[in-house]
Amino acid sequence: MKGIAILGSTGSIGCSTLEVLALHPEHYRVVALGAWRRDELLFEQVRRFAPEFAVMADESAAARLAERLRGSGSRTQVLAGAEALAGIAALASVEQVMCAIVGAAGLPSTLAAARAGKRILLANKEALVMAGELLLEAVRRGGGELLPIDSEHNAIFQCLPLGTRCGVAPSGLRRIILTGSGGPFRDWTQAQIDVATPAQAIRHPNWSMGPKISVDSATMMNKGLEFIEARMLFGVSAEQIEVVLHPQSVVHSMVEYLDGSLLAQMGTPDMRTPIAQALAWPERMASGVKSLDLVAAGRLDFLPPDPTRFPCLPLAQQAARTGGLAPAILNAANEVAVQAFLDGQMNFGGIPAVIDKVMQQAAIGRLETLEDVIAADDAARRAARRLLPAHAPKHVGAR
Ligand SMILES: NC(=O)c1ccc[n+]([C@@H]2O[C@H](COP(=O)([O-])OP(=O)(O)OC[C@H]3O[C@@H](n4cnc5c(N)ncnc54)[C@H](OP(=O)(O)O)[C@@H]3O)[C@@H](O)[C@H]2O)c1
After folding, report:
1. Staple 149 to which of 8, 61, 123, 160, CB 3.0 to 4.6 Å?
2. Which residues pair with 224 in a beta bridge?
3. What is the CATH architecture of 2-149?
4. What is the pTM of this model?
């Protein structure tokens, strides 16, 4: 029985992880679940999986959860606060940690899991974007391992030779081809994109995901964050990564070797596949995902991305090339801008504009310590907030 902690258990990835685990109760024991403030959903999960610990970052949500669990006779211990999330990531009884908190909030617990030598199942791409070198160094020192959950990086990982180490490009690799659907606005005009509503932005054509990553997919910042993530995880240069639009989301990414061989990982677009792959690695186990019907899929298209309508992608690629604290600054500005858009405070078209201005104004330093990252993140958030419009634009629709 492998002990597992799921941080962000109430989110899209967290729920998919629990679905996969429910298929294999003889192999996995849910030791701890963690979330932010959705105590009702966490209560249901605790009732179903009976973990030893349930953590809520929000103190009042934790108090509500504890109250309800007491009334139900549960033995699960409820903990509160962000530090408790990092604490359960390092528990001795936990072998694997699903890091599925969204955004910068996931960094401390991911680092704690790395330092404690756990197998990290990394969905929280923002942690790697912000502090990639520090995180990979913590994984190396901790003696654990990091397996990517992002479908593209998981696909690449599956196409690389067994024994490939995180952050070190295997010999014979020519390039990585990162595929992306292009999001819900792939065929929209600039004028339509500029005034798109949150409801339109989170309606992804192929994937069912949380609101922040759905907006990132619509701006193509998601592909930009993945570009940075790929550089970190696979130790390749920016020039070795090509982004290609693939509207069907059947090929999840590809790896090209020096001899011209192109290896792809394909499947039904469902996050339970990379989750099960990483949980069981190097073995394989059922995920509950249905087989891909190739005849029904019919055709596979590949197109170049449009940097003019989707400027977030080149902004992120530039941050990857600049390195140092640039990705952390980009990530922070993006988180603020996306939240402002979701809150109806700003147009969709304002997202890249805010990020671009923050990047232009920022003094981009070197990344040496976690304190550097936290300071850069904090300064970029303040800079981004100053750029938000004072009043909600009239044409922003309701969610
Ligand atoms: N969804 C996908 O298909 C997908 C694919 C690839 C990568 N990812 C990555 O996986 C991560 C999670 O994505 P998601 O779509 O699952 O997000 P989501 O559905 O929005 O869920 C986010 C999770 O994080 C928790 N959370 C949010 N803020 C927190 C905080 N300050 N402290 C502690 N917990 C916090 C939420 O708790 P509450 O529910 O209590 O708010 C929830 O459990 C993201 O980094 C995303 O980029 C997702």
Report:
1. 123
2. none
3. 3-Layer(aba) Sandwich (3.40)
4. 0.96
Residue nearest to atom 35 of ligand 1 (CA): 36
Average pLDDT for residues 190-207, to the nearest whole number? 92
127 lines ligand 1 (CB under 6 A): no
Kindly give the distance from the C-alpha atom of residue 9 to the centroid of ligand 1, in angstroms, as a whole number: 8
Ligand 1 binding pocket includes 124 (Cβ within 6 Å): yes
Instruction: Give yes or no for residue 11 CB within 6 A of ligand 1.
Output: yes
Confidence of residue 88 (pLDDT cuts 50, 70, 90): very high
Domain boundaries, the chain: 2-149, 168-269+303-387
Compute the distance between CA of residue 207 and CA of residue 191 in angstroms, rounded to an integer. Answer: 25
Q: Which residue of 12, 109, 399 sits with most ligand 1 atoms within 8 Å of its CB, as the best mutation to test the pocket?
A: 12
Structure token pair of residue 136: 């990979």
Ligand 1: which residue has its CA nearest to atom 47? 213
CB 365 within 8 A of CB 324: yes
Residue 178: which of 311, 270, 313 has the closest Cα? 313
The helix or strand, by DSSP H or E, that contains position 6, with its residue range, turns out to be: strand 2-7
**How far is residue 79's CA from residue 87's CA, in Å, rounded to a whole number?**
10
- Verify whether ligand 1 is closer than 6 Å to residue 209 (CB atom): yes
Pocket of ligand 1 contains residue 125 by CB under 6 Å: yes
Residues 319-367: tens digit of each pLDDT: 999 999 999 999 999 999 999 999 999 999 999 999 999 999 999 999 9
State the first-to-last Cα distance of the chain, in angstroms, to the nearest integer: 43
